[in-house]
Amino acid sequence: MSLYAELADRLREHIEHGFYKPGDKLPSVRQLATEHGVSISTVQEAYRTLETERLVEAKPKSGYFVPSQPHNDNLPHTSRPPQRPLDVSQWEQVLNLLSNRPANTRIQLQHAAPDMTVSTLTPLLKSLSDLHRQHPDWGLGYGDIRGHIELREQLSRLAVASGCQLHHDDVVVTSGCQEALSVCLRAVSAPGDIIAIESPCFYGAMQAIKAANLKALEIPTHPEHGISLEALQLALDQWPIKAILVTPTANNPLGYVMPEDKKQALYKLAQEYDIAIIEDDIYGDLTYEFPRPRAIKAFDEDGRVLLCSSFSKTVAPGMRVGWIAAGRYRDQVTHIKYVSSSMCPTLSQIALAKFLRLGGYDRHIRKIRNTYATSRDQLLQAIKIHLPNATRVTCPAGGFVLWVEFPPEVDTTKLTEQAQEHGVAIASGSLFSATGKYRSCCRLNYSDQTAELRTEGIKIIAQLIKAEHPNLF
Amino acid sequence: MSLYAELADRLREHIEHGFYKPGDKLPSVRQLATEHGVSISTVQEAYRTLETERLVEAKPKSGYFVPSQPHNDNLPHTSRPPQRPLDVSQWEQVLNLLSNRPANTRIQLQHAAPDMTVSTLTPLLKSLSDLHRQHPDWGLGYGDIRGHIELREQLSRLAVASGCQLHHDDVVVTSGCQEALSVCLRAVSAPGDIIAIESPCFYGAMQAIKAANLKALEIPTHPEHGISLEALQLALDQWPIKAILVTPTANNPLGYVMPEDKKQALYKLAQEYDIAIIEDDIYGDLTYEFPRPRAIKAFDEDGRVLLCSSFSKTVAPGMRVGWIAAGRYRDQVTHIKYVSSSMCPTLSQIALAKFLRLGGYDRHIRKIRNTYATSRDQLLQAIKIHLPNATRVTCPAGGFVLWVEFPPEVDTTKLTEQAQEHGVAIASGSLFSATGKYRSCCRLNYSDQTAELRTEGIKIIAQLIKAEHPNLF
C-alpha cells in the first residue's frame, strides 16, 4: 500500500471513530508530514483522497476540516395528521405509481430504486452467474423455510454494526422487506387492531396495514427527529394501539435519523405500554455517517422489537431478499412467512452470503453512501435554485429520497400528472398518508439518474408550477 | 424422421385423441405393416416405443392394447370429517415436516418435490445460467408487480390445454402456489369467514386459512371422485361459507381427477350459492392422461373461479414461480400480492417464458408424467406385497403422491417417528386434517428417489408395523 493511502486510512479511521468530530479542524499538512515522516505532497494526496470521500473539506487559507452537517433553515413542518385510527385508502394511487412504465418517463424521480450500475456490485453478479452455471441444481429444491443458513449467519454478523446481538436462529429470510413488514404486522396483531405509524409513512407499509384489516393511526412526525414521542404517548393513552411501525434510520420519505436518545425513549414507551415495535431498517446501512447509527433493536431487552430489512435499497430490489429478526414473535413470524410464500430462492441467498462474507457488501456500501450524499447536495442545490422560494425540503442523513413541501397552493396530485406528460415522474405526497393528505408535498429520489437529468426534472417541475402560480417566484 | 418413429407418432396421436380407448385392442403388427407399406420390424419398433411411453401394452399371444385404468378394489374410505367449521391446528407438525433434514433421512417419502434430475430440465437451467451471465442487470430492478409480460403471455397460452381462455392481463405471477393460495384466500374473504375444503386437504392451504383468521369446514371426499357435492350442498345450506378451496385435478394427497361432470356441477353449486371457488391446479399438468383434463376454471362464466398454480411440481419448487387467474377478484388479488411480497424475481420468469415458448415445457411434461405413472405402479406393487393385507391405497391419476389408509390400529404419528429413526420419512395423515384426524393414514411420494429405495422404505415401514401389530400380516 502506498504511503498516502496508508495515511488516508489512518485519518479515515480517526474521523470515522469520532476522534475528530464534525466541524473539527484537522492537523495541518506540515504537522502531519513531520509526525509521519512523509513528504508534504504525500499528505496532500491523502487529504485529496478523503475529500473525494467527503470525509474532509478544505477551507481556503484555513486548512482541512471534518464537514459539519449542512444547516437547514427551510425544513418542512412537523406533520399534523388526523388524530384517530383510520382505514388506509390510496391504493389506486399506489398502483398507478407501481405501474409507471419507464418507456414513458425520461426522468424518474418517483421510485426508490438504488443505483445498480456501480462496479462494486460486480462480484455479487459474477458469483450469482457462477452459481447458476456450476450448481444449477442448488436452486431447484425446497430450501430451509427460515432461509439459507449461510445467509442467516452473515446477517447475524452484519447486525453487529447496528448494535444488535442476533443468533442466526433469530433471523427469518423473506421475499424483500415488503414481505417482512407484512408478515410482522400479521404476527403481532389481529384484524381490527390499531397500528401507530409515522406521518408521512411509506405507502407499502400502509397498504400492508390495510390488507391485514388493521387501522392506521398517524402520529405527528418531525422532519429531523422523527415520530413525536409526546404525541405518541397521548395516542397510547387514548387508543388500544397494538404496535408501532417506524423507519427511524434514514427514514422514507423524510430521510432523518432519529437521535439515539429518542430511539431509546421510544423503546421505553413501548415497554411501558407493553406493545411491539416493528422497525423498518431497510435504509439503515445507507446513512452517511460512520459507524452507522444503532437500531432500536439494539436496545431490545425483552424481544418486543421486530427488525425488518432487505437488500432492496442497499443492493438491488430484484434480489427479493429481506429478513426479520422477530424477537419473541419468531414462531408466529415463521408460521406466517411459510403460509405467505413458503421459502425464498436459494441461489440469491448463497450469493449474498458470499458477498457479505468476502467484504464485497461493505465495500459497496462505503462507496454508494458517498455517491448518494453527493447526489443529495446536488439535488438540494437544484431545488434551492429553481423551485419557489417558500419551498421547504428535508436534508436526508441517509438513503436516497427527500421530501419537498411546496407552498400550500401547489397541488402535487395535479403536478404529478402534468410532470408525467413531460416525461418526469415524481411521487406525490398523498401516497404517504393513509387518507390522502400532504397534497402540497412530494418525494424525490436521487439514486440512479444523473445530476443533469435530476436538475432538468426540477426545472420542468418549476416551470409547471410557475405556469399556475407565477406569484410564487 | 425414421419410419418407425413416424408410425409411432401417428399411433400416439390416435391413442391420445381417443380414437382408441383404454382397453381397446390395437391393429396387429401384420395389419399395420400392410396398411403403411413398412416392414414387420418397423411396426414392432414403433410399438416398443409406445410401450416405453406406457401408451400401449403387449398381451402375450393377443397383441397390443391401450392400457385400461388399473382396477382398484382396496380404495381408502370416503372421508368423514367433523361437520362444523373449525380453527386449523397442526402447525407444529407441519413445521416438523418442513424442518426435516435430508442428512438424517435416507429414504424420503414425505415431501412433494418433483424429480429434478431429468434431462428435459437442462434447457431451462441453461437459459437461466445464460441470462445471469449475459444480462445480470435484468434481474436487479423492480419488475412488473403483476409478473413479467412474456411469462404472462406464455401462461395464457398454456391455459388453453386446461380449457381456459385467459388474457395475459388476467394473470398475476406469485412466489409459488403457496403465495397464490394465501393471496386468494385473503382476497375473497374477511377474518372469521368459513372456507369449505376437501378432506384430507393439503396442509399448506389449511395453514393459510389459519393465518388469514378463517375457519375451515372439511367436506367428505371420495378417494376417486373428489369432494362430495351432496355433503357440500348440505354444508352450504347450513353455514355461511365464503369460498370453496379444491384441488380437483391430480389431488394432493389423494391423487384423483374429479370427473368433468362433477367439476361442472361443483361450479353450478358455487353459482347457486354465489360463492367463490379457489382451484389449486398445481399438479394439473401432471395427469397421466392426454390431453390433460379441463380445470373448473374452464367452465367459469362469471369470474368466480380463482385458478392457482405454479411450476413447483411440474418443474422445480426452487423457481418460486406461481400464478393466479383471479377472474373478478383480480384487483383485490393484485393488491394483496403487492403487499405480501411486492414483485417476483425477473430472470426466472424470463427463463420459464422461454422454456414454454420453445416447447421445452411440453417435452418435459410428456416425459415426466410417464416416469411418474411407472413409479406409481412400482410403489403400488411394493405396498401390495409388503404392507398389511387390509391396507387401503389410492391409485393416483396424476402427480406423484398417494394416500395410504392402514387398519385403524396403526397410529401413523407414532409410525412416522419410528420410521424417521430408521432413516425413512413419511407424511403422517394428521397433517392433512384441520384437527389431526387420519391418524391411521399417511401420504407417500414417488417422484425423486429410486424404486429400490422406495421399496426398501416400504419394507422398513412394514417391519415397524409388524413389530407392533403382528396380527395384521
Q: Roughly how many Å is the radius of gyration of chain A?
A: 23 Å
State the low-pLDDT regions of chain A, or none. none
Helix share bin of chain A: 40-55%
Largest interface: A-B, 58 and 57 residues
Instruction: Assess the beta-strand content of chain A as a share of residues.
Output: 5-15%
The secondary-structure class of chain A comes to alpha/beta
Question: How many separate domains make up the residues of chain A?
Answer: 3
Number of helices of chain A: 15
Summarize model confidence as the mean pLDDT of chain A. Answer: 94
Quaternary organisation of the protein chains: homodimer
CATH fold-type name of the largest domain in chain A: Aspartate Aminotransferase, domain 2
Region (Disordered) (chains A, B): 62-85
InterPro entries (chains A, B): Aminotransferase_I/II_large, HTH_trans_reg/aminotransferase, PyrdxlP-dep_Trfase, PyrdxlP-dep_Trfase_major, PyrdxlP-dep_Trfase_small, Tscrpt_reg_HTH_GntR, WH-like_DNA-bd_sf, WH_DNA-bd_sf
Protein name (chains A, B): PLP-dependent aminotransferase family protein
Keywords (chains A, B): Aminotransferase, DNA-binding, Pyridoxal phosphate, Transcription, Transcription regulation, Transferase
